[in-house]
Task: structure prediction
Amino acid sequence: MRVLIATDAWRPQINGVVRSLERMYEAAPSHGVTAHMLTPEGFWQIGLPSYPDIRLALATRRAVAKRIAEFKPDHIHIATEGPIGWLTRAVCLAQKRTFTTSYHTRFPQYVAARWPIPERWSYRFLRRFHGPAAGVMVSTATVEAELRQHGFERILRWGRGVDLSLFHPRPASVLDLPRPIFLSVGRVAVEKNLEAFLSLRLPGSKVVVGDGPARADLQRSFPDVTFLGTREGEDLASIYASSDVFVFPSLTDTFGIVLLEAAASGLPVAAFPVQGPSDVFAGSGAAVLDEDLRKAALAALRIPRETCLELAAGYSWQSSADQFYGHIFRIAQQVRAAQNVTTFATARGAEGPARERLRA
Result:
C-alpha cells in the first residue's frame, strides 16, 4: 500500500508533531507500506508571523496535485491545518479521494494566547477542515471528548510512543549545576506557559532545553535560569537523565511526547492537572499534578525513578504505528468494499434493460 502523509510541520522544526510523523514514516516498511512525505520542502516559504522559525509553504493547488499524482498514493493522510494541509484537502475533495486527518495541536487555545480571536471561531475553522475526513486521529480520550463536544465526528485514537533505546537512565551527569535540577524541554513560546515554571521559588537549578520566539525575553527576565537551546539525540537524552524533576507548565498540549521521554529517563514529572499530563500519568504515580506547580515540583522529588520507568515501558512507537496504519488499512478496506457494492449494483442495473431487449 502506498500512503502519502501531507504535513506543514517538518524538519528543521523540532516538535512532537514532526517526531510522531518521522516515526510513522520510519515504521511504514514493517507494515507493508511505502510512505511518502508531502512537506514544505521544495516550495517557496515564508516565516509564520510572530514565529519566523516555522516556515509556511507558498504552494499552489496545481503543484500539490502534481506531487500527489507522481506518487500515486492508495491513501492520503493530512496531518496539519496549514497551507500544505488545506491544498492537499482541496485536491482530495476535487478528485473524490478518501483521506484521514490528525489533530495534534489545541489550535483554538494557541491562537487565543497570541491574538484576541474567540475560540469558537477557531473551532468552526477546524470543523470545516476535518469535516470531510474519513477519520480524525487524536492522541487521548480527553482530546476526543473535547472535539466531540465541539461537533467533531469519526474520531479515531492514535497514541504516541518513546524510544527506550535512546531515553533511559545514565550513571553519569552532564550537568554541573547545583541540585536538585528542574528541567523543562520544548518550544520556548508564549503558549507553552514557561513563565509559570521559571518564576517558581525552587532550590537548586532550573534548566530549559529548546528554542523559540520567547527565548530572548525570558532569558533577560530570568538570568538565573540555564537556557541550553535546542538539543537532540544522545545530547538531549543525557540532559534528561542528568536532571531530578521534569516540569511541564503547558496548559494547552494535547499529549506532550517530552513527558514520555522524561519518564523513560527515570525523571518524575510535575505539571498542572490538565489534558496531556492527566492522560499520560493517570494512576501511575510517576507524576505530581497540582494547580500549585511549585508544590508539585517539590513533591515530585520523592517519586522513585523505578515508577517512572515502569510507566514509560508501556509506550512504544511500534504500538503507535500499529494504530496509525491500522486505521488507514481499515478505512481503505471500507472504501474498496463500498466500491465493489457500487460496481455490482451498476452491473445488476444494466442487466434489466439487456433482458428486456432480448425478450423483444
